[in-house]
Design goal:
The structure holds two protein chains of two kinds. By secondary structure, chain A is α+β, with helices and mostly antiparallel strands. Chain A is 34% helix and 16% strand. A five-stranded mixed beta sheet of chain A has the order 2-1-5-3-4, with helices on both faces. The longest helix of chain A is centred in the last third of the chain and has 17 residues. By secondary structure, chain B is of the alpha+beta class. Chain B contains 19 helices and 29 strands. In chain B, helix 9 crosses helix 10, helix 13 packs parallel to helix 14 and helix 14 packs across helix 15. The longest helix of chain B has 28 residues. The chains are: A alpha+beta, B alpha+beta.
């Protein structure tokens, strides 16, 4: 009665990983427990909190609402893949540090990925757009005040990085 | 040049790993290893006898390693979980078993425990366990508990665990003689901490060392260590408890041991494998803890100025199915209710009641939000009755700055006198009025009314006993590299301890901030500790670390004095270099001092060789003289006589929609006094988070139990925790810094304050917004939703539309 296993090739942060998992294995669990990429956090397992948000072909997706087998042929980016290879924090990460945008840090990876994609789509958000950008993620520590500031700061840092 | 870091908004050191996805939370521990995973069968019924548990189908499931029911537990493990904080008034204390014995008393109570290859298989196995129940009537809510038609525990009459009364003067007589009297009936519903990370435990039995290593997401690693040792029959010295990064606590993780904190290490020892339990979100709702549910009856007598003459409060506290954390929450409500006021005569009486619901343990604020709600609603009622300004009525009742220390004449939660150490409430009131625009508000309200808009303002004040004892300790070790390693035993769940404690050490020792590394919650590094609750970490461990750093500095200066042939009093330490003041040429690195402090036989490195140029110690004495120890270390403990009392005031301006009764926050203002600030950026972050949590508790969150004891909203889909869309765009904060005389840094706790006045301040503001249109509208139940406000408009008075 053992479960049928499937060969799955995942492309995460530019590296390929071959794993063998049951069809029901959540992508969040595959990332965390099979690939040992524990930066992606699981806060609710029903797609509401956003802590497990990753980028799938650049689009923010809830890893707890995807199966590992359905992630084949997609480029996945997790929080571990946001900083430069030399370790320099990305503008969004840097902005969170500067603005005290995190406390316990558990929801943070989901905010970082969400905002990374958000600023890609809208590099110069208005204040209301900055709030809207994070309106699908839960944080219990910060009251969101400094996360909104971090979105705006990240937009500035991003622009400063653009080649003139 | 090192500048003073105390008081500066230093960026957090822990952020570097959190931002890179390199935090190490409990579910991340041992992820590289072949770990077994646990799942728990939980009662689907609120009250039932357990007649039979059949696990025979489970053993056939491939990948299952172990199944436990109560029958499998022996010795101390088969006894009820500890009643952590006994109290003479708690005559009927009941706690659950690690796995249910004969009876279940809430939906979510643990019945069986399965360990399997992964969580999926463990849950498959749980679903194959068959339990026969005999249903018993469920007692849900304070009213049902008080009626006691049915009993939660057959041997607890009236469902009453405890009754407690405290008196100052004669409140009943004073009220009877008072020129004016009022009575209020108030209710406040349940909410919960709901940290983003639930509970979790990992255990490994090391056969080589014959000891247990336990990682758990807790607010008290030393508490868990002692509990696990007792339950497993181990020596304390055989158990290491390590608190990894914790994804939020807010109180719920102070309770311990949870059943899984015992069953996971038991299974790990039996199986000889690393075992992990990670709570899921539904489990967190139904099998951790809630708080806040109370019904309150208040009688107050006062004079023409609104000055309190007598206050008589009775309340009924719903503590759920069991009471492991004792009476801490209702005792805090009953004492902290007084806030910044002098009631003159006060009587408080409460009953702590069993219900067939999830148990109640402290949630950020820990009974204070309920107390503040009772007191501040009373102040509003007095002002309304007398036709006076609400701020004025509060002001006439304030304890004045020259009256500190002020003894309220009660016994606080720590068993000590409720004596306020310092504060300046009139100054806070002036600040909050200015910050929110109190005096200008009537004009604004009139202007809005002309546009057909309803706006209201509310004000609420609180005093919070923080930094309760008994103690915390710290160990400071200056290594031969000059790096400083600091350990304190209490835990961290987002407060930035690694940053603020490093600030204190850098200041005291004169070392670079980046050379200081702080570890919390690891019993291997500091086995004596209490825990992180009651806004006590900065006060308790901050003070202990300051004292330990002082000791390390004294030793460093003594050795450096010998090496430099100078009087220690003439030395200073700047950026980790000890030098003679005014003579910078004569200097020695702290790292070299550390080498000198330990008369080793061997030279390992350049630092050891460098040390040979200096001569220390008396050649006529042993290399380590009597009463001294090798190594450049300092260790000390801080144990205050009593708590230090922080305070603050919140004000909010809300708008209520005339048609839909939607409630919108227009302005939220906070004046906060936690004594001297270590890191204002972190303190403000704590306030932001508290305010958001308070908004949730006042306007959105509740535990929706049906009459059979099913929690209907046990998910983030249905339990309405605020997103950014529910919190105001900006929170105005002003600080007052009234130092505490009780600790060397003059600090007070800040963690819980932001959440305390929320129910009170929103009830006041919404009532004020409605007053011109529905004059009879009184808000006596919180939280309040738009539909409830709409219903109140129509039930309490006809709309003047």
């Amino acid at each position: 009665m053992s479960e049928e296993l499937h060969d799955v090739r995942l492309t995460v942060n530019g590296a390929t990983h071959d794993i063998r998992v049951p069809a029901r294995r959540l992508l969040s669990d595959a990332l965390r427990h099979d690939l040992k990429l524990t930066g992606t956090h699981v806060g609710c397992e029903h797609g509401v909190c956003g802590a497990c948000t990753i980028l799938v072909d650049g689009e923010p997706m809830r890893a707890c609402l995807m199966f590992a087998v359905s992630a084949v042929d997609h480029e996945i980016t997790t929080v571990e893949g946001l900083a430069d290879e030399d370790g320099t924090l990305s503008p969004v990460q840097q902005a969170f540090a500067e603005c005290h945008g995190l406390q316990c840090g558990f929801c943070t990876p989901g905010f970082l990925t969400t905002i990374t994609a958000g600023l890609e789509a809208n590099p110069c958000p208005t204040h209301d757009e900055a709030r809207e950008m994070i309106a699908g993620n839960l944080c219990r520590c910060t009251g969101y005040q400094n996360i909104v500031k971090a979105v705006e700061r990240a937009a500035v840092l991003r622009q400063a990085q653009e080649p003139a | 040049m090192t500048s003073k870091l105390m008081g500066q908004g230093v960026q957090r050191v822990e952020d570097q790993r959190f931002l890179r996805g390199q935090g190490r939370y409990v579910d991340d521990v041992a992820v590289e290893q072949d770990v077994l995973h646990a799942a728990v069968l939980r009662s689907p019924h609120a009250h039932a006898r357990v007649l039979d548990i059949d696990v025979s189908d489970v053993l056939d499931v491939e990948g299952v390693h172990l199944v436990y029911t109560y029958e499998d537990l022996t010795g101390p493990m088969a006894e009820p979980l500890p009643l952590l904080i006994p109290h003479p008034a708690l005559t009927e204390g009941r706690t659950q078993y690690a796995l249910a014995k004969d009876e279940v008393n809430y939906v979510g109570e643990a019945i069986a425990f399965v360990v399997a290859e992964d969580r999926y298989i463990a849950e498959d196995a749980v679903s194959k366990i068959r339990v026969q129940y005999e249903f018993l009537p469920a007692v849900v809510g304070v009213d049902a508990a008080r009626a006691a038609t049915d009993l939660v525990h057959a041997d607890v009459p009236g469902n009453i665990a405890a009754k407690l009364e405290q008196n100052v003067g004669d409140a009943v007589a004073a009220i009877a003689a008072a020129p004016h009297k009022l009575e209020l009936e108030l209710t406040i519903e349940r909410s919960a901490c709901t940290p983003m990370e639930g509970r979790g435990t990992v255990a490994r039995w090391d056969r080589d060392l014959n000891r247990l290593q336990l990682w758990t997401s807790t607010q008290s690693s030393t508490g868990v260590r002692a509990a696990v040792a007792v339950k497993m029959g181990l020596d304390l010295g055989q158990v290491d408890v390590i608190t990894p990064d914790v994804g939020g606590g807010f109180g719920v993780k102070i309770n311990h041991p949870w059943p899984e904190e015992l069953l996971v290490p038991l299974a790990a020892r039996v199986l000889g494998r690393t075992v992990k339990f990670t709570e899921d979100r539904r489990e967190h709702f139904i099998s951790s803890a809630h708080e806040r549910g109370q019904v309150q009856h208040i009688e107050v007598g006062f004079d023409d100025d609104g000055r309190l003459l007598g206050l008589n409060v009775e309340f009924w506290h719903d503590h759920g199915a069991y009471i492991p954390y004792g009476l801490i929450v209702p005792i805090i409500t009953s004492t902290q209710l007084l806030g910044p006021y002098k009631p003159q005569n006060y009587r408080v009486y409460f009953e702590s009641l069993y219900t067939n619901t999830v148990m109640v343990t402290p949630y950020r604020g820990a009974g204070r939000p309920q107390g503040c709600y009772a007191m501040e609603r009373t102040m509003d009622a007095i002002a309304k009755y007398l036709g006076k300004d609400r701020a004025e009525v509060r002001a006439v009742n304030f304890i004045q700055p020259d009256e500190f220390p002020f003894d309220q004449g009660l016994i606080f939660q720590d068993g000590r006198e409720l004596e306020y150490d310092s504060g300046d409430y009139p100054a806070s009131l002036e600040k909050i009025k200015a910050l929110v625009g109190w005096d200008e508000f009537p004009a604004f309200k009139a202007e809005m009314a002309a546009e057909g808009r309803r706006v209201g303002i509310g004000l609420a004040c609180y005093v919070e006993g923080t930094g309760v004892g008994p103690y915390e300790g710290a160990h400071v070790h200056i290594e031969t590299t000059g790096k400083v390693k600091v350990a304190t035993g209490l835990t961290t769940q987002g407060q930035g301890h690694a940053t603020v404690f490093a600030q204190l050490v850098a200041d005291e020792l004169g070392v670079k901030f980046e050379d200081v590394e702080v570890v919390t919650g690891d019993t291997r590094r500091m086995p004596y500790a209490v825990g992180t609750f009651a806004s006590r970490a900065a006060v308790m461990s901050g003070s202990a670390i300051h004292l330990a750093a002082k000791r390390a500095k004294e030793k460093a200066l003594k050795i450096a004095g010998e090496a430099l042939e100078a009087d220690p009093a003439d030395l200073e330490i700047v950026d980790g270099v000890v030098s003679v003041k005014g003579s910078p040429g004569s200097s020695i690195d702290l790292g070299t001092v550390s080498v000198l402090s330990n008369p080793l036989r061997y030279a390992f490195d350049e630092a050891s060789k460098a040390a040979t140029q200096f001569s220390v110690g008396d050649p006529g004495k042993p290399p380590v003289p009597e009463d001294e120890e090798p190594g450049l270390e300092g260790r000390d403990f801080y144990s205050p006589e009593r708590a230090t009392f922080a305070s603050g005031m919140h004000a909010v301006i809300v708008e209520t929609d005339p048609d839909t009764a939607e409630i919108t926050i227009l302005k939220y203002a906070v004046v906060h006094d936690c004594g001297n600030l270590i890191n204002p950026m972190i303190v403000e972050g704590q306030i932001h988070g508290g305010v958001a949590q308070g908004i949730g508790g006042a306007l959105y969150e509740r535990m929706a139990y049906d009459e059979s004891g099913q929690l209907l909203n046990a998910s983030f889909m249905d339990f309405l925790m605020p997103y950014v869309t529910e919190v105001p765009d900006g929170i105005d904060i002003d600080h007052l810094e009234t130092p505490s005389p009780l600790n060397p840094l003059g600090i007070k706790g800040a963690g819980e304050a932001g959440v305390i006045p929320s129910a009170a301040v929103f009830a006041a503001a919404i009532e004020d917004a409605e007053a011109p249109y529905v004059p009879g509208l009184v808000i006596t139940a919180m939280p309040i939703s738009p539909s409830e406000l709409y219903a109140l408009r129509h039930s309490q008075g006809l709309e003047n539309s």
